[in-house]
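User: Let's play a game. I give you a shape written as tokens, and you guess the letters that built it. Ready? Here's round one.
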């Protein structure tokens, strides 16, 4: 294990290969990756194995991997400064996933929010409060006698994610707020491994937010987060017309009813987006206009669209340049896979040794 105090801290993160990246992915994850690459020993990957839990069309999976890679590079990730790789190119991860599953409890996995969410969707059960509670998920899964099923890969999603992180001995894992529970499980599995084998082999990785709070980028539909499955996204690849149209259609309300009222959720969401993309003075201007009831939502949206485009259009242009450059893209990930495999093979060797798996 490394004892060199001057060594840079290790950063590891990834995004599932499930479609184009949106502003939530950008501000929750990718933009943080880009800002960290000069100061840390960074490894970023594309989680194609994680994407399998929701059964992507085989014809689409590789295209999705390719587009995320192009988006990583277009947003500014430099393959000379980071290890960039595809998860499935590193078979050591899959083996360590098997080993780590021996230390993951079914109960804790079933209580994970992302599992409950996806299981509910697969089984067609309503959200708690809308007529169902957590017990219904368990009953449905165990007593399930119809065709709808929840696959075991979905249950062990956090084990695979923990392995992604632990195999690099990562210190920091820049992710959005929705991933913090997975990170907590990662720490727990590492601690459990350490205590079972009486070792201090794994340390405890944490999220990274430049000293601030984890970001949750809202959608344009008035409530909740921006997410691929929510259908409320602004994509980095959106062209100018599409993007403006989406922003102009964002849900609002009938306007502030009295001075200094607290903004309703849809309006707060627009302010939150503005906080990410606009000058502080622009945001202040519209907040003031809300407070004195002079705000015009049309103006707010126009300004917001303008400021989002300043961020996304240059990235879009680079994506379009990169995404068909197969030769360059494959060169990047072939090299990344070599580098990642070297790290992963060492950890796997050590983990096997600790667990007592020895060769004759
Ligand atoms: P999606 O929710 O659209 O399926 P992913 O789950 O693939 O996106 O997320 C990839 C990364 O982007 C994760 O680090 C996640 O925390 C972050 N992320 C996704 N949506 C948001 C959001 N609305 N706000 C902040 N971060 C987000
Ligand atoms: N679970 C993450 C998501 O849905 C993707 C992911 C897989 C990941 N393995 C990871 C993120 C390891 C950070 C570190 O976005």
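Assistant: Ready! My guess for every position:
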């Amino acid at each position: 294990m490394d004892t060199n105090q001057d060594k840079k801290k290790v950063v590891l993160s990834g995004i599932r290969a499930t479609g184009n990246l949106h502003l939530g992915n950008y501000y929750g994850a990718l933009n943080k990756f880009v800002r960290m690459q000069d100061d840390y020993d960074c490894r970023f990957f594309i989680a194609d194995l994680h994407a399998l839990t929701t059964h992507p069309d085989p014809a689409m999976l590789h295209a999705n991997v390719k587009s995320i890679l192009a988006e990583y590079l277009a947003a500014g990730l430099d393959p000379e400064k980071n290890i960039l790789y595809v998860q499935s190119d590193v078979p050591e991860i899959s083996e360590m996933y098997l080993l780590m599953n021996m230390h993951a409890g079914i109960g804790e996995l079933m209580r994970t929010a992302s599992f409950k969410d996806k299981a509910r969707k697969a089984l067609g059960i309503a959200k708690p409060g809308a007529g169902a509670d957590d017990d219904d998920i368990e009953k449905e899964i165990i007593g399930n006698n119809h065709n709808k099923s929840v696959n075991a890969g979905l249950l062990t999603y956090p084990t695979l994610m923990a392995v992604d992180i632990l195999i690099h001995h990562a210190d920091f894992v820049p992710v959005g707020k929705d991933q913090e529970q997975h990170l907590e499980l990662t720490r727990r599995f590492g601690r459990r491994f350490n205590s079972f084998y009486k070792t201090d082999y794994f340390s405890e990785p944490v999220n990274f937010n430049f000293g601030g709070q984890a970001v949750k980028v809202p959608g344009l539909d008035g409530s909740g987060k921006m997410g691929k499955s929510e259908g409320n996204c602004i994509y980095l690849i959106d062209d100018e017309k599409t993007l403006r149209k989406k922003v102009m259609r964002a849900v609002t309300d009938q306007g502030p009813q009295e001075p200094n009222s607290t903004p309703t959720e849809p309006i707060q969401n627009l302010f939150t987006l503005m906080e990410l993309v606009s000058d502080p003075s622009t945001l202040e201007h519209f907040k003031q206009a809300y407070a004195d009831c002079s705000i015009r939502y049309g103006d707010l949206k126009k300004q917001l669209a303008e400021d989002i485009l300043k961020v996304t259009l240059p990235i879009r242009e680079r994506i379009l340049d990169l995404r068909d450059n197969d030769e360059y893209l494959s060169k990047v990930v072939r090299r990344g896979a070599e580098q990642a495999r070297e790290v992963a093979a060492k950890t796997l060797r050590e983990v096997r040794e600790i667990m007592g798996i020895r060769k004759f």
